């Protein structure tokens, strides 16, 4: 098919758009936004058509490959997993670009903005359709770069500059783990092949890597007294990368700060697309995870913990965007948890997780864009100063409410009726229950269900504080222009119905991705037992809805009707509130203790002073010699008698010395 | 056939003399530019007629020089030296363009020194006779000594003399090693011969194990001081940071230490009495340089010193990759030399601009420069990103190859190097944030962006960084060919 | 049959000297310039004669003179230095009423040195040695109105006489033990000296006698004072020429006559070589008078050359001999450059005391570009930076040290050589990196010619050393 | 016949006297005389050896040496004259502007 052959254009067009916009943007209206919009639209069309093709024939994956350097290639692999992501990313990116035309209309640096978002889109699309782990890493870093640039878009604000740096550095920790994983993987493959690299085969392609899974499991190393399979190490290191990029505990600290960037950036990068790259990485290499003993347990536990941990902070934030940021972290936790459930449900976990990923992309992007719309209109992020915005901005209000319902997960269990978030989050929570029954570990389920309650609470707190009641400050405001509201409405539609439309088809489509691999055999290698499921008790099925409704009701009572007085809880006296409000003192721990005290003052200054010592040693030698010369020259007294004495003494000493040495030897 | 190698060495030296006798700045810079452009054209011609699938010496020239000592005038180029010659031939004309409108005393001498330096450095890369090699090797010291001494910063006297003597000591120790090799081979075969390949080949036949190790260590010392490698780096921060921008860039282009590792040390390595010990020494020094340099860079308050230390950190990859002993790790190390030359040129050029425009390079005294200097910021961010190893730029290719393929033989050192990556990112971003972003420091007064000359030369280098980051094969392929050759030489001994 | 043609260089110089002496009687002070040209001509002719007969071997005058490659090589060294000095002196002696005497002394000193190079008998050697010494005593005190010059001359004279006495004593003992003063005769009868209690004593006395000329620590004490105080051009002659006379004498006596005592004198020379190069270099570090610094540097250089006695391989001797030639160019050049600076400074201010102070070299790169550039070449050559004569000589000398397994000596020498870079580089820094308020001055042509010739010599030996190396090898083969 | 060692002893004594004088006296003339003493002690050696070895070389050498000593004295006095003209004294130990 012709469209398939154009697959390489998917990342290249936005990349070209980046270059064009960067250099020509200033000369075009609205910062040259039209260039990336057209480019991404074409990418989107190609992606969608390839996806359509794949839907018709899931086995017909698109592959393209060119030699890059040494023994590496650049290649394209569009299988169902990639196709879905491509379509979502290009589509959401397109909408957000259109939205940004209105949102960024007052900013003088528009060309830079559109160039950078185009760069991001290119990198993200490149990441998704990589057919090898290195190219994925390359694009992985490039999206990190775009994220850095876009968070720091308003670089003249010290907060933005600092947040950009923090985001880059924190994710960099994960990236290094990812890189270490690739290094270890390659070294192991090298060892398995006994140093004889086959000609014409690119070993870092996913398909090639998967062939080595049994050999990799067999290699063991003893680390800290534990016998660990190298596959476990590799997957854990990959997961480390995912933890950084997808804002999982403990590397999530950058994500709330990343809200310093323009809201469109938050929507595109820090909600819908880039942060899901970590989830995508795990999904992409899922066969390795499935075969690695112990890894999926770690994944599930960490995902569940992050889901709850972030949600607790979400309920106390007063900044519109920060609430959404914590919500993103929490939802990413769900996705990671979903992947971890592979331990009991196998490849289905990828389907579940990806489904949530896509749905989340729609409703979270929508939430951010709505927030952006509000901020654009009223000029503040602080919910305590808002209130009653719904009257001024009805479209925003409506779409945001739809998104909130999707996030909180409203729907009727057992049917396909419900907001998209419900239809994708529910299977994860159910999966967690299966996980609990199969492994006896209830923690993921308990965390997930508690987080579901908190999710509902914080998102409706946001809705009520922002849109209902009376204005708490004088902000004026107006409904946003149509270039903003049309994307809102489009996304709103998707947030409401996408889940319901695609539910069944989606899962099977994604699962078909791994059809050619024997997932059960892989699970055997990893020591996981995939059991049948689908017969959960009714309470378990209804539980998510129950907690969601509970959350809504409590939020309504507190923040709309003000029935419950929060003043005693929300005070600096309350240690729990203080802990949450200060975000568990992560900043203090990470920045002040870890970065400043240990890394900077400890190690860097220690090196600094040790280097001073070394330098002193070198300079000291020269000083010593010069001083020695200064003393020795005093022998040259200028008096002839002394000179004569030196000659005579020299003769005498030389006779004695020569005599002595001759005697001794 | 054109004696192209002699020409690319002699033309810069010739033009150096011409430039020295020019009267005005205009004449000086034009003469310098013409000289370097001719060199560039010749180098490009050589590059395009170069066969990157062959590990043999190409464009060889040989003539008797001092027959009574077995010294010949022997030049040649292969995949190890070609990229480095290319690097010099490309960056130096750009450097001259970069300094086009600079105001400084005695411009004729300034440009003459740049050209002399170019001739000397290329001379090192093309020499295939140890005598000639050493002659050029030492000659590279002199222009830099003058450069720092005449146009250097406040502490130039100290920096220049320290650099001069420290590296001279190292060169002399290396010379002793060459002597050892030369005479041992002489007494073995009865004829004096200074030819590099011959002497390296004779190394394995030396009877005494102590002599072999001593010779190896002496040569290694010479090379790693120049590279430089911790703990023999003390000369570098002072020299790099006190030198004028052009001097710093010339320092960066002085890749002769790492070149020596590939050309001389690696083929000899398997035949030392204790190869594994030597590998450990090299690997450990490389890894220590990487992480120690990174921490030191993090502790610096001066932008230029920070870049200097970051250079130490980056050059650690060269030593580590060389010690990795897998053909691709060696290629990675070679590529790191090439890439480091480009990246650091941007870094020092950016820093130079900041220093001349604001009068300071203390990071905390800067701030918010991006608002006044958008063009510089774009190039500088690109340079910094390349330096911290961002994929898509040259630095990543080199680091990836070195890390991945050194891991096979020395996992511990690679893990140390991996830890340093985060630190590397930290100091780069920290410096960018403090110097370029945030609110503008009003004390700095009125600042204008870089001139179009500067933008041109930095921009071209930046483009090269991107180009080779995505398409490294034009230089990487020949490196791989040669490193496979080196490894195959080692494999003969089963190391 | 005596082939007088082989003595033609000496005869030429002698005749030139006599012509100059006679001409001086009849010429006025202004027209005395002509004697300089005569002297230069004589030197050049003598040099050409020496080169043309290079490699001829002959023994003449009852076996008391021998002409061979070694003696001819050193004659070339001496004549080179004398030529350079004479050329530069044309300006120095311009308008001086005593110019004729100056040239006569220079030429006679040169004859003395050349005779030492050909001497095959200790008697001839001693007489020639003293001829050169006496002439240079006078030259050192040539500036009669300059207290420093007189003082330099006095010190040189006293220590020189003492050394002459020691040398004579040593020769006496050798003669007493072996019954002959002929070098080959001594070598044949050496058993008598070996068994004599006078053996080591005579050895050390001879070392002291020659060591005075070579300026080996501790017989060097006069050298810095004299080099500093004497007129710069005379210092050039002393450091570059007369020093080599000590070396060739030592070559002849120790290697030619006393080879059987090799073990003893090698130890002595090893000690002296290390002491000399280290002391010279370290003390030179803190000097501010350029001439004094060059004096200490020439101590260090003498230390390097002395290594040839310790190593005693054909290669080492080749290195030592080549070093003598290179050092002739480098040191003479450096002193002539200093002389040019001193000339410039004194012509600006007659009464200045420390005309050779480092401060006067500030900004020389702008004030006297040719002088500064030449000086740069000389000091870099002295420190052994390629491609110069200094590097080439060090290359051969140090490498031969490694060859014979004396790694410790090579390491000491190498470290010393690195250390020396400090004070040499400082001169360069003063010339190019220090600002000055002085204007550009025109450099006198004779100085410029002498400097450029010396630069050419330094670079030619550095870049195309083959003819020189093979000549030095031939010379070395005479000894071993 | 007087044994050779007696001559050698005499020569050594004369040399030592000369050396002592050279190192203790300040007056230039006296130092010059001491130097002459030392040279002559060496001459004694040469002549003694000559006679004991039954070889004329030593005596010829001594004659040369005496001639050289005379020349040396001439130069020495000339230098001392210059010093005297400049400073009105010939104390050699005052000559120390050149040092260190």
UniProtKB/TrEMBL annotation, chain A:
- Predominant subcellular localization, coarse grouping: membrane
Stated membrane topology is: Multi-pass membrane protein
State the compartments where it is located: Membrane
NADH:quinone oxidoreductase/Mrp antiporter transmembrane domain: from which residue to which, for each copy?
A: 130-435
The molecular function terms of the Gene Ontology recorded here are: NADH dehydrogenase (ubiquinone) activity; NADH dehydrogenase activity
- Lineage: superkingdom: Archaea
The segment(s) forming the NADH-Ubiquinone oxidoreductase (complex I) chain 5 N-terminal domain are 72-114
The transmembrane residues are 6-25, 32-56, 68-101, 135-155, 176-193, 223-244, 265-283, 289-311, 332-355, 361-380, 392-412, 442-464, 485-502, 539-559, 589-609, 643-662
Assigned GO CC terms: membrane
GO terms of biological process kind: ATP synthesis coupled electron transport; electron transport coupled proton transport
User: By its UniProt entry, which InterPro entries does this protein fall under?
Assistant: F420H2_dehydrogenase_comp (IPR053610), NADHpl_OxRdtase_5_subgr (IPR018393), ND/Mrp_TM (IPR001750), NU5C-like (IPR003945), Proton_antipo_N (IPR001516)
Assigned keywords, A-Z:
Membrane, Transmembrane, Transmembrane helix
The answer, when asked if Transmembrane helix is one of the entry's keywords, is yes
Q: What is this protein called?
A: NADH-quinone oxidoreductase subunit L
Classification of source organism:
Archaea, Methanobacteriati, Methanobacteriota, Stenosarchaea group, Methanomicrobia
Q: Which gene encodes it?
A: nuoL
From TrEMBL, chain B:
| TM ranges | 6-23, 30-48, 80-98, 110-128, 134-151, 163-183, 214-236, 248-266, 278-299, 306-326, 338-355, 376-398, 410-432, 453-470
GO BP field: ATP synthesis coupled electron transport; electron transport coupled proton transport
- Keywords on record: Membrane, Transmembrane, Transmembrane helix
The record's Pfam families line, in alphabetical order, gives: Proton_antipo_M
Q: InterPro entries from the entry? A: NADH_Q_OxRdtase_chainM/4, NADH_UbQ_OxRdtase, ND/Mrp_TM
**Record-level GO cellular component terms:** membrane
Localisation per UniProt entry? Membrane
Q: Its Gene Ontology molecular function terms?
A: NADH dehydrogenase (ubiquinone) activity; NADH dehydrogenase activity; ubiquinone binding
The coiled-coil regions, if any, are none
Topology term for the membrane: Multi-pass membrane protein
Query: Taking the first listed entry, what is the main subcellular location of this protein, grouped into a coarse class?
Result: membrane
Location of the NADH:quinone oxidoreductase/Mrp antiporter transmembrane domain: 127-424
What's the family? Answer: Belongs to the complex I subunit 4 family.
Q: Which NCBIfam families does this entry report, sorted A to Z?
A: NDH_I_M
- Mind telling me what this protein is named? NuoM family protein
TrEMBL record, chain C:
Q: Name one GO cellular component term.
A: membrane
What membrane topology does the annotation report for this chain?
Answer: Multi-pass membrane protein
Q: Which residues form a coiled coil?
A: none
Tell me the ranges covered by the NADH:quinone oxidoreductase/Mrp antiporter transmembrane domain, including all copies. 119-419
Mainly resides where?
membrane
Q: Where in the cell is it found?
A: Membrane
InterPro entries per UniProt: NADH-Q_OxRdtase_suN/2 (IPR010096), ND/Mrp_TM (IPR001750)
According to the record, the segments passing through the membrane are 6-27, 34-61, 73-90, 102-119, 125-142, 154-175, 200-223, 244-261, 267-290, 302-323, 329-346, 367-385, 405-424, 445-464
Recall the GO molecular function terms of this protein's record: NADH dehydrogenase (ubiquinone) activity
Q: Which UniProt keywords apply?
A: Membrane, Transmembrane, Transmembrane helix
Entry superkingdom: Archaea
Q: Name one GO biological process term.
A: ATP synthesis coupled electron transport
- HAMAP family linked to this entry: NDH1_NuoN_1
Report what the protein is called.
NADH-quinone oxidoreductase subunit N
Question: What lineage, starting at the top, does this entry show?
Answer: Archaea, Methanobacteriati, Methanobacteriota, Stenosarchaea group, Methanomicrobia
